[in-house]
Write a structure and sequence with these properties.
This protein is of the alpha+beta class. It has two domains: about 120 residues, Roll (PH-domain like), CATH 2.30.29; about 55 residues. The chain contains five helices and nine strands, in the order βββααββββββααα. The strands form three sheets. Strands 3-4-5-6 form a four-stranded antiparallel beta sheet. A hairpin with a 2-residue loop joins strand 4 and strand 5. The chain is elongated and about 75 Å long. The N terminus and C terminus are likely disordered. The structure holds zinc ion (ZN).
Length: about 220
């Protein structure tokens, strides 16, 4: 475990925005409480998901989201129109309109807003912040190799005998490539008992069911 002033990182290597509320953190101490939302944070964290989801990720998904929203609005609109013009409101019509509105709201929240849950890679361990719950810290010595589990659409990693499963929608919305970045960063993060570089060796022992996320 390293600490002390000797390895105080440069300002450019530190977190620039609060992962919960996006408050600007430039110039603030490494350890502090976010002045805006009260999150106790360490600016050395590498954050994935939540407010750390890059704007470019959101912009990439938007064209598809607009198309889906247009289809949903068209279905709702044409259903309302046919119901009104026929002078008869049917249960099927009401359900169609209700379902369309719910689908539209879901698309909006997951394609235009950032998720509320996030993952922080901290010097003391991997910290999971689920929306509305106290954070959970897993020491690096216990965290095994992370992978994306396609069947459950989750980021999974073993902690001792336990298997932690983080649903990708909750942390990354549709942005699987952000989850992929997170998986790679977890597997790259130096473990306390390993000399630098050993993380790469353990990364090569991938289980057959995991996606090989080591790219260029
Ligand atoms: Zn904050």
């Amino acid at each position: 475990m390293t600490n002390g002033a000797a390895d105080t990182p440069a300002e450019t290597d530190l977190l620039t925005r609060c992962p919960r509320c996006r408050y600007r953190l430039r110039g603030l101490p490494v350890h502090h409480t976010c002045p805006e939302c009260g999150l106790e944070l360490d600016r050395r964290w590498q954050v994935f998901g939540g407010q750390a989801l890059p704007g470019s990720a959101l912009r990439h998904g938007r064209p598809i989201a607009y198309i889906v929203l247009a289809i949903v609005v068209w279905i709702a609109g044409s259903t309302i129109f046919t119901q009104l013009s026929s002078g008869r409101v049917t249960v099927f019509g009401v359900m169609t309109v209700g379902g369309s509105l719910a689908a539209g709201a879901g698309i909006y929240l997951t394609s235009f807003r950032r998720p509320k849950s996030f993952i922080a890679l901290a010097p003391e361990g991997l910290i999971v912040f689920r929306d509305g719950q106290p954070p959970e810290t897993f020491p690096w010595s216990d965290v095994g190799r992370a992978r994306y589990d396609i069947a459950s659409k989750s980021l999974m990693f073993p902690v001792g005998k336990r298997r932690v499963r983080l649903p990708s929608m909750q942390f990354f919305h549709w942005y699987i490539f952000e989850l992929d970045r997170c998986v790679r960063a977890i597997n790259r993060y130096p473990r306390p008992d390993e000399p630098p570089g050993a993380a790469n060796q353990s990364a090569s022992r991938a289980s057959p069911s995991s996606i090989d996320t080591r790219g260029s």
